[in-house]
Amino acid sequence: MSKALSTQRGLVAVLMTAVFVLALPAFAADEAAPAPGGDKEPLKIKLPEPAFGGTPLNYFGLNLEKPMYTRPPFMAPKGAVNLAKGKTVTASSDTTMGKLEQITDGEKEANEKYVVELKPGKQWVQVDLGQKSEIYAVLTWHFFAYDRVYFDVVVQVSDDPEFAKDLTTVYNNDDDNTSGMGIGADKEYVEDYKGRLIDAKGAKGRYVRLYSKGNTTDAANHYIEVEVYGKPAA
Asked: What is the per-residue pLDDT across 49-63, written as a single tens digit (0 to 9) for each?
């Protein structure tokens, strides 16, 4: 083998190794944070540890999005914080596992001791922020110890605790209206350690309500944590 050919093959090997490393998914304890600019800055989100294992997901819904290994930082007005931390949580059913206060306690690892389970069928949990607030993002974790998809995920904001009036829907992936809340344009997704970050676009209200209707593993509904980022409304 000539010296020139050997050098060329060496360069190819280095380039292939670099491409492979760059292609690997990034798993970080926190969301990446670029330098802030203007009147916005990236939300400081503390992520739980990734979870791997379990039976591979056998679900191919037409409305299912492709998994994202990384998520770009979410830019929000400066000073936005998690308004839901330690706040009161109510629900449409009794819990069959865990306690509702766990949903806003900051514990969000993929462990059954952190899971709150509601009864089967269409159910909701509701966070009382304590005052009317301007909401920029809602971040929710269902059970993510292994791959599963939760159905008919709908998230709404309102000043009415009964959600009978003046409500804003910020997320709806019920594409066939089986939950009777309208046809949603958002995608179903596979649960993972990043949670689902929903752009609330500054919706104003005191209460945040999150619906689901079973999942690909069973008919129950689960929550590990809900975070609501925003500021008290002026």
From this structure: 999 877 889 999 899
Rg (CA), the chain: 21
Sign of CA dihedral 88, 91, 93, 97: negative
What tens digit of pLDDT does each residue of 138-152 get?
Answer: 999 999 999 999 999
Instruction: Give the position of tokens 């689902």.
Output: 196
**pTM for the whole structure:** 0.85
Residue 161 CA to residue 127 CA, distance in Å, equals 10
Instruction: Work out the end-to-end distance of the chain between its first and last CA atoms, rounded to an integer number of angstroms.
Output: 75
Q: How many CB atoms lie within 10 A of CB 11?
A: 10
Which of 184, 83, 186 has the alpha carbon at shortest distance from 138?
Answer: 83
Q: What is the largest CA-CA distance in the chain?
A: 79
